[in-house]
Design brief:
CATH topology of the largest domain: TIM Barrel
Number of domains: 5
Distance between the termini: 28 Å
Strand order of the largest sheet: 8-9-7-10-11-12-13-14-15
Largest sheet: 9 strands, mixed
Helix content: 25-40%
Number of strands: 37
Structural class: alpha/beta
CATH class of the largest domain: Alpha Beta
CATH architecture of the largest domain: Alpha-Beta Barrel
Bound molecules: pyridoxal-5'-phosphate
Strand content: 15-25%
Shape: globular
Length: about 800
């Protein structure tokens, strides 16, 4: 039941120029040339993103795409391709989606707010899917591009749409409104944070409310819109509140009953109730929004309560973990629609650590497609995404087994059958994507395949890493390249998982400290250029075999490398020249450059790829004069070198803090290190939008009552002021939680409260004063996250964030998330 449009019709809808050489039928909108599954039926939009989409037309053409929306034709001649020429490619995408939306007369819920949009969308989907056929945004595809792509999925089988809209500046909501055309509006939590893209919180709210301008009904929190009463007048409103009683749903009582959250409310002058399986503040508010929406849409209070009590947690993230037998496991057992399957398969392809790619998939429910068409699409997707081994679970997949033409396939009737045979599959050194509908309980499979985790984990959010990368991309002058520093296990965040993400997102260079680090990246599928900062002469052969590029910082290193190259008959090997402009660590000093130039002039064995230097205090105003002096020394040196070489090289001096503070020193490339991981001393935190990438978590192993006169831990340094209780947690100095944090210097977050350490930190454990917190064994404890940042930990013990991050020992498991 896939819909389609003739390209000639699309041309009219988006009001495009250009002529049509072949009137094809389009059913797929393509915005990323790396994600092509159905080239013949795809229409590629050359969108202006961080990079100009027109650069990717050739790639898409090579992959078989013949239909393009562009704002100018490419120079290369592609005689059999249709080019629709428009002034604004994004506007064309939105216009086409809006046109598509208009073909259907269904109820559409439009959701916006500062927080909770995705959860509320997914929960409403869970709550209403028993009787509705629902179409919604995959994951949190709620942007100017994500919304039209989401709305494009609407077809005849649907009778309800649920779409979330996210904006970052003024003028954006009108465009999303035109695409979604919501009939029912839902406003989620409104934060008070002052966003970069808006003058004031009021402006932000007014912009968001534009989503509802044509809604016949609006569901909202009374307090949030107290100052916006005029904007509400013309429509049917359903308000809720936990404070005021002159509303449609007045929640007047909230208590916790055996781990659940029990709410009572007044609705139509009657008392109603609702039990929620979660009790954190965000979940409670999101659930009230859902409760109000159900009532507003005519569900009975009894149905609403019944269904809300069974709400399942929403996890939009893919988890990447180390598995048994050297496997990598990508766990995505929450969603199993075809869109999210595609997203997960893209992630599978992005992680290149193992040659072999395996998919464990369950039957898919509620796709809005006929089963034949659905499994044909699944099989096609599995083939185009280069899955090597397919493991299907469920009777429908069994029935359609013959569609899957892959080297290895296995089918099982249910999860229990697969679990019984799991050992016989000999899963080894492969990347395994686990994806199943909730009822299949695939978490059992993931538990069986994932290495048993020591309960202290470092979680790395790859989306945040990407948004930090984009933050810096946005601050570079046009054409400036990025070298991402992934030395020291990517500042403790892991090696190839991070590198794969950076490679996929087209960073220009990677840098590691030692040859071995580079070799490991090569062995895990990293093919992009890699510079080695400290290449040891003993490792030159490994370096060359793995196409790693050495930094040459002294005459002896230079001589040894040239001798090695000579011996191996290598010519023009790419190297990088390091200038010491003031750090006085390694590098050629200004007075040595002339001699270096003499050597370079007559040398055929190497080719200088770049010349660089390192700033010692790019973030510190008091050293700005010194920084300027460094820049000057560097300029003199690279000019001399380029003169001697007779060709130009890539020049770079800036590290993270230099990027924003010294824009004139960006030259051809910047070396982005700690900023990627969310820390930058030069950028004020509020305005930067940088987010910490890592969360360090542990768990409570025991809770003890301790009297005021007793002592805690080694050498009896710790005690409580009054009788109280302590929690022992599974992290110690061997994990990287240094002894300096002991005796109240360090703090951890226990169930939302910051509590101090007591006594000395021991090797594998330490103790926290939890006298004033409700805790039990097994509770999660946060060492650092976006609330208690690495910067604060660094301050507590008088060090720098770099050291906190890189100290986290390798025995702490890394888990990666991708949303
Ligand atoms: C580590 C390193 C960087 C990155 O520094 P950040 O402050 O983390 O951005 C840049 N250049 C060199 C030579 C480095 O060793």
């Amino acid at each position: 039941m896939q819909h389609s449009y003739a390209i000639s019709d699309i041309k009219q809808v988006i009001n495009a120029g250009g002529n049509i050489v072949d009137d094809t039928i389009i059913n797929t909108l393509l915005t990323d040339s790396r994600r092509i599954n159905n080239p013949a039926g795809s229409l590629f939009f050359a969108l202006d993103g961080r990079r100009d989409g027109h650069e990717f037309i050739a790639d898409a053409y090579t992959a078989g795409v013949r239909n393009f929306v562009v704002n100018h034709r490419p120079d290369t001649i592609m005689p059999d391709a249709n080019f629709l020429v428009v002034a604004d490619v994004l506007a064309a995408l939105q216009a086409l989606a809006a046109h598509h939306r208009k073909q259907f007369n269904l109820d559409v819920i439009g959701i916006t707010g500062s927080n909770g949009k995705t959860i509320v969308k997914e929960w409403l989907y869970q709550l209403m899917s028993p009787e509705k056929s629902i179409v919604r945004n995959p994951k949190s595809y709620n942007s100017q591009i994500g919304v039209p792509v989401s709305v494009w999925q609407v077809n005849e089988t649907h009778n309800l749409g649920i779409f979330e809209a996210g904006i970052s500046t003024t003028g954006e909501m009108d465009k999303l409104e035109a695409v979604i055309q919501p009939t029912i509006g839902v406003l989620t939590h409104i934060g008070t944070a002052h966003d970069e893209g808006f003058e004031s919180p009021e402006e932000k709210l007014s912009e968001k409310l534009k989503l509802f301008k044509n809604c016949k009904q609006l569901i909202y929190n009374y307090e949030a819109l107290i100052d916006h009463k005029d904007e509400l007048k013309t429509r049917e409103c359903f308000s809720w509140s936990r404070k005021f009683n002159q509303v449609d749903l007045y929640v007047f009582s909230e208590t916790t009953i055996s781990g659940k959250y029990y709410m009572r409310a007044m609705y139509k002058e009657k008392e109603i109730e609702c039990l929620l399986p979660y009790r954190d503040e965000a979940s409670v508010e999101n659930a009230i929004v859902c409760w109000a929406t159900m009532l507003a849409m005519g569900y009975s209070p009894v149905d609403a309560d019944d269904r809300i009590e069974r709400l399942a947690a929403v996890s939009m993230r893919l988890e990447l973990k180390h598995g048994i037998n050297d496997c990598s496991i990508i766990d995505d057992s929450y969603n199993s629609d075809i869109q999210s399957l595609e997203i997960a398969l893209n992630f599978l392809n992005q992680q290149n650590q193992h040659q072999k790619k395996t998919l464990i998939l369950s039957d898919i429910y509620q796709s809005g497609l006929q089963r034949d068409a659905l499994y044909k699409q699944v099989a096609q997707l599995v083939t185009t995404k280069h899955v090597d081994r397919f493991i299907g679970v469920g009777t429908s997949l069994q029935e359609y087994a013959s569609l899957f033409n892959l080297p290895q396939t296995h089918f099982y009737a249910d999860t229990a059958a697969l679990l019984k045979e799991l050992g016989k599959l000999h899963l080894q050194e492969e990347t395994i994507l686990i994806k199943g509908s909730r009822s299949f309980e695939f978490e059992k499979i993931s538990r069986a395949l994932v290495q048993k985790a020591h309960e202290t984990v470092l979680e790395i959010n790859l989306n945040t890493l990407l948004s930090n990368l984009n933050f810096y991309k946005g601050r570079l002058k046009p054409g400036v390249k990025i070298m991402a520093m992934v030395k020291a296990f990517s500042y403790g965040s892991g090696t190839f998982e991070v590198a794969n993400m950076l490679q996929y997102n087209k960073v220009d260079y990677l840098a590691v400290a030692y040859t071995d680090e580079g070799v490991e990246l090569r062995e895990n599928g990293i093919t992009m250029p890699i510079m080695v900062l400290n290449p040891e002469p003993e490792s030159y052969d490994k370096l060359v075999v793995n196409k790693l590029e050495p930094a040459i910082y002294s005459f002896s290193l230079f001589d040894e490398f040239v001798k090695f190259a000579q011996g191996e008959d290598i010519i023009n090997y790419p190297v990088h020249i390091k200038i010491d402009s003031g750090m006085h660590r390694v590098g050629f000093e200004a007075f040595e450059v002339e001699t270096l130039c003499d050597l370079l002039e007559i040398n055929q064995y190497i080719r200088v790829q770049s010349v660089y230097s390192h700033l010692v205090a790019s973030d510190a105003e008091q050293h700005d004069m010194f920084t300027m002096q460094q820049i000057k020394i560097f300029e003199t040196a690279y000019k001399q070198i380029e003169d001697a070489l007779g060709y130009t090289v890539i020049k770079h001096i800036s590290n993270t803090s230099g990027i924003t503070r010294w824009p004139n020193a960006q030259y051809d490339m910047v070396r982005l290190g700690i900023g990627l991981y969310g820390v930058d001393a030069a950028v004020p935190r509020e305005e930067s939008g940088l987010q910490p990438v890592a969360t360090l978590k542990t768990t409570i192993s025991q809770v003890k009552k301790v009297a005021a006169n007793e002592t805690i831990s080694y050498n009896r340094n710790g005690s409580l002021k009054t009788d109280g209780k302590i929690a022992t947690v599974r992290i110690g100095y061997a994990d990287g939680y240094l002894r300096a944090f002991g005796n109240g210097v360090g703090r951890m977050l226990v169930n939302g409260t910051l509590v101090p350490t007591v006594g000395n930190i021991t090797m594998d454990m330490c103790m926290l004063d939890v006298s004033n917190v409700e805790v039990k064994e097994g509770d999660e404890v946060i060492v650092f996250n976006e609330q208690q940042r690495i910067e604060e930990l660094a301050l507590q013990i008088g060090t720098i964030p770099y050291e906190i991050l890189t100290n986290i020992s390798q025995r702490v498991k890394r888990v990666y998330f991708y949303e």
